Amino acid sequence: MSHLVLSAIACLMAAIIMVRAVCVLYHAYYKTHSRGKLHFAGFGYSYVAFGAAAATALVYLLTNHNGYGQAAIWLFLAASAGMILFDRRHRR
Fold first, then answer.
1. What does the alpha-carbon distance between residue 28 and residue 33 come to, in Å, rounded to a whole number?
2. pTM: predicted TM-score of the whole model, two decimal places
3. I need a labelling partner for 68 at 20 to 30 A (CA). Which of 29, 33, 34, 47 fits?
4. Is residue 91 part of a domain?
């Protein structure tokens, strides 16, 4: 595949992850979180880290770093985007 197509695929997968992280954090509210403030903070920070990891993976892939880590980055993006797109939990 051409570099342009791979870059577009990487951007799409990273965008799915980052948009989902923002949407989850936007709808989160500590007063309705049933497990306490510490659990809520951990939940929020994990989604911030999830979005940051997607952004970092995208930058890594777009700057053409070659090596064994690149396959792991592609797998991370594909698995994370698939997990979000095909989540079977009920929507609120």
1. 8
2. 0.73
3. 47
4. no
